[in-house]
Write a structure and sequence with these properties.
The chain folds into two domains: 168 residues, 2-Layer Sandwich (Endonuclease, Chain A); 175 residues, 2-Layer Sandwich (Endonuclease, Chain A). Helix content is 25%, strand content 23%. The protein contains seven helices and 16 strands. It has an eight-stranded mixed β-sheet with strand order 9-15-14-13-10-11-12-16, with helices on both faces. Strands 1, 2, 3, 7 and 8 form a five-stranded mixed β-sheet that branches. Helix 4 packs parallel to helix 5.
Length: 355
């Protein structure tokens, strides 16, 4: 993109602004310049980007860390020109490339994402802007300074602010008929929590969910030693799944086996199964364990509404007044649902049944 702009600036009369925001999770760094933001800038230099700003051609590269690391941002999204947006479960890492990727570093980790073009992209843009405003932005005056001067010495930090050319803020109408819902949550804004809970609880026929995490509250991890929690001590998505089963819906959940996440998943599954037996609806819920490396956060409700994004069925991703920043989309679209169903059925067929 940078090279195209340099070669043909006339094709980009408004220039190009690229903003990259990292989630700023807690990390062990030995000091400047060892953090993820420094690594990102160095990788961009290695890729051939020699300037963060070139006013002559209208180039602006802006990078920032999400404001705050506890809780951090878990969002995985891209917004292009205010027209196209994605909500993803996957990160921008080699783990999520196919095992046979040309780099030789692909991890083959299974995941899903959703891309839409149309008015919904504006909601995603507003979500990104909300996160960007006040983020910890790093500017570097010279990415290729004279010999002997470290490029890091030309960098300084500021508080990020939002600005767009007017064209980016226009609603784009591609002419399709799909319905898309934006689902954003943060430590002060729990809209996505309420959306997920309402949708799951309303299921009448089926829920097919693929989630790397499936947990009670964190304290319930102690259930591996002592029975201190029932399924009642869980984020609200669990009661919604129970409600769906009581509605008569057939609930299928694919989750990750051990280690780490798998232990929490097993604790939650055990508590859920006990409650299902008490209610006499144990036959309404089936759970299987993924085969291989996985990372998705998705659910299809009544074969009509598909939710895909970053929000896990996990205590870190739910709860008013706390939790990670997350973003998902829900869509009513025949093609997207057909693709998801095909992927789900394949994974279900190859998954291991829970005991």
């Amino acid at each position: 993109l940078y090279n195209n702009l340099k070669a043909h600036p006339e094709q980009y009369p408004r220039g190009i602004t690229v903003r990259i925001m990292l989630g700023n999770p807690p990390e062990l760094a030995t000091g400047e310049p060892t953090g993820q933001l420094w690594t990102l800038i160095d990788d961009l230099r290695y890729a051939g980007i020699d300037k963060m700003v070139d006013e002559e051609i209208g180039w602006r590269l802006q990078v920032a860390d999400f404001e705050g690391s506890m809780p951090h941002s878990h969002v995985k999204t891209i917004v292009i020109d205010g027209k196209t947006a994605t909500a993803n479960g996957f990160n921008m890492t080699y783990d999520h490339f196919p095992a046979d990727h040309i780099s030789g570093e692909g991890g083959g980790r299974f995941d899903v994402g959703l891309q839409v073009t149309g008015p919904a992209a504006q909601a995603t843009q507003r979500m990104f802007d909300d996160m960007w405003n006040g983020a910890d932005q790093r500017n570097c005056i010279n990415l290729d300074p004279p010999l002997g001067i470290p490029w890091q010495a030309t960098c300084y930090d500021i508080s990020a602010t939002v600005d767009h050319v007017p064209e980016v803020q226009k609603f784009y109408l591609p002419g399709g008929s799909s319905t898309v819902f934006s689902m954003y949550r943060s430590k002060v804004h729990d809209q996505a929590d309420r959306q997920v809970v309402a949708v799951l609880a309303a299921a009448q026929e089926s829920i097919d969910a693929m989630h790397v995490n499936f947990t009670l509250e964190m304290v319930c991890d102690l259930n591996v030693l002592f029975d201190i929690c029932t399924v009642d001590v869980s984020p609200d998505y669990m009661s919604s799944l129970l409600q769906a089963a009581q509605n008569g819906a057939h609930v299928r959940v694919l989750m990750k086996p051990g280690p780490t996440e798998g232990i929490e998943n097993i604790v939650a599954l055990d508590a859920l199964e006990k409650r299902l037996v008490q209610l006499g609806i144990a036959d309404k819920v089936e759970v299987r364990y993924f085969e291989g490396s996985v990372h998705p956060k998705a659910a299809l409700v009544d074969d009509q509404l598909l939710i895909i994004g970053s929000q896990n069925f996990h205590y870190s991703a739910f709860g008013r007044g706390g939790g990670l920043t997350e973003y998902s989309m829900a869509i009513e679209d025949e093609a997207a649902i057909a693709d998801y169903k095909a992927a789900f059925e394949y994974q279900w067929e190859h998954a291991e049944e829970s005991n």
